[in-house]
Amino acid sequence: MDIFKKLKIKANTMTNVFDIATYILSKQGPMPAMKLHKLVYYCQAWSLVWDEQPLFNEPIKAWANGPVVPELYEVHKGKFKVEAADFPGNTEGLNETQKEIVSIVLRDYGSKPSQWLSDLTHLEAPWRETRKGLSDAERGDREITWAAMAEYYESLLPEED
């Protein structure tokens, strides 16, 4: 079965990016907006690998400072630090699998500073490949696809015997 066709079919019944952002902030507390975007990105990427479906349907763009969800950015534009109350998210709709994915991402990435997370995304294929041909400072409007994220992050998992 083509996993990416399966992903598109399930896309209509998921939470949105504001739900995920609100949940992250409820667990971690206020943080720089750039860090929130990177954590949202990693939650989406690892959900595609572990649960074989996305957490949210909003596109992630390959901006100069790393992956950004424009809809999320529009809500906090002009703010350096964000908190759960800044977003219209509802965490009630997250199922246990989604909460577990976010918890694992927060365990592994949550203590890292914003710039460290941004630098990490710049080293990884989904962001790099999407930005091919753009200058370092150019904002860009290209979407990092679910397929690119799933393929790359799945390749990081240890091989099963």
Tell me the number of helical segments per DSSP (H or I, 4 or more residues long). 8
Shape annotation: globular
Secondary-structure element sequence?
HHEHEEHEHHHEH
Structural class: mainly alpha
What value does the average pLDDT take?
91
- Find the count of extended strands (DSSP E, 2+ residues): 5
Main pleated-sheet profile: 3 strands, antiparallel
Strand content bin: 5-15%
Distance from N terminus to C terminus (CA atoms, Å) equals 22 Å
Helix content: 40-55%
Strand order, sheet with most strands: 3-2-5
Radius of gyration: 15 Å
Spans where pLDDT lies below 50 across 5 or more residues? 1-12
**Overall structural domain count:** 1
Organism: Candidatus Thiomargarita nelsonii
Domain Antitoxin SocA-like Panacea: 36-127
Protein name: Phage-associated protein
InterPro entries: SocA_Panacea
Which terms summarize this structure?
single chain, 161 residues, mainly alpha, three-stranded antiparallel beta sheet, two-stranded antiparallel ribbon, 8 helices, 5 strands, 53% helix, 8% strand, globular, disordered N terminus, SocA_Panacea, Phage-associated protein
Task: Describe what this molecule looks like in 3D.
- With 161 residues, the chain is mainly alpha-helical.
- The protein has one domain.
- The chain is 53% helix and 8% strand.
- It contains eight helices and five strands; from the N terminus they run ααβαββαβαααβα.
- The protein has helices at 3-10, 17-28, 33-50, 70-76, 96-109, 114-123, 125-130, 146-155, and strands at 31-32, 60-63, 66-68, 81-82, 143-144.
- The strands form two sheets. Strands 3-2-5 form a three-stranded antiparallel beta sheet.
- Strand 2 and strand 3 form a beta hairpin.
- Helix 2 crosses helix 3 (33-50), helix 2 crosses helix 5 and helix 3 crosses helix 5.
- It is globular and about 40 Å long.
- The chain starts with a helix and ends in a 6-residue tail after the last helix.
- Residues 1-12 have low confidence and may be disordered.
